[in-house]
């Protein structure tokens, strides 16, 4: 129920207002509170919560209406004032409006006019309340997205590899709505001869996706470091993710282990985009056996395969945010453009290639906000490591 504070030093105003608005009071449309001057009004506002509408005379003893408006603006900015003033007193009315009065009525009061003014002001107040609620929700969403972004960024490795055997570089550009892309690379042996590489895309947005991403990345790492092959790793990770997956989330992923002595890549794919290999004289899209995304069906078994990466070949992994980068008129970057770009920049180092394609996507989108993360990982194999 709305609360209205009426401030007037005339003794019959309280009786008159209660009489005129008895139906609204009886139907609990609003309740009335009364004060005889500005000081009393401030005391009422300080003790009675949720008063959002004030109707005040200007000429009152102890504290007049204009001084009251100044105090309300400083102490109770959520209160919306209506001023009552003598007809023709435009100077005071103008000052009152400058001090924050929403509207005014003139004396002698026309109660039909006052009723319309109250209704209009109440509607304005309701709009303000809804705006405040919306802002609170948006602030909460923004906080959630910031948390999700921090989670997402915190798990991405930054210690990229650049030696006489390997170049490894990756980059994740977060979308306007934080998703669940991640990449990873790590040695699985003490001799640092076998390198694991992972790229993945979690369904959903915000904190849930970020948390599911963290769990997925942890499970993949833990199983990989337990001497499991890519297929075995995905089979176990899938079982763990599917269990108690009440939100029906899933993650597409590609996981490979590169033997840096031989160049043999043992890999497994779970519903993810097939990587490209830039060879000396061609670009090859890997022919992979598509397993289902992780976390969907527990009984899924994941098969693995091998391919040989030749010295100076570059392996390019990416999420669908790359090819689905969009312009304002609905055009997509697309697979063909990606392959053309890879071919044109085939001689670049891993880091330069990723950054160049990233710049081309930015130029293509021309400032249009993207709805999906854009993640790339490039690995150039230079041959067996020499001391």
From TrEMBL:
GO terms for molecular function: phosphatase activity. Gene3D superfamilies: 3.40.50.2300, PPM-type phosphatase domain. The keyword Hydrolase applies. The gene is rsbU. The keyword Hydrolase applies. Residues 3-122 form the Response regulatory domain. The lineage of its organism: Bacteria, Pseudomonadati, Pseudomonadota, Gammaproteobacteria, Candidatus Berkiellales. It comes from Candidatus Berkiella cookevillensis. Keywords: Hydrolase, Phosphoprotein. The modification 4-aspartylphosphate is found at residue 57. Its EC number is 3.1.3.3. PROSITE patterns: RESPONSE_REGULATORY. It comes from the Bacteria. This is Phosphoserine phosphatase RsbU. GO terms for biological process: phosphorelay signal transduction system. InterPro entries: Bact_Sigma-Reg, CheY-like_superfamily, PPM-type-like_dom_sf, PPM-type_phosphatase-like_dom, Sig_transdc_resp-reg_receiver.
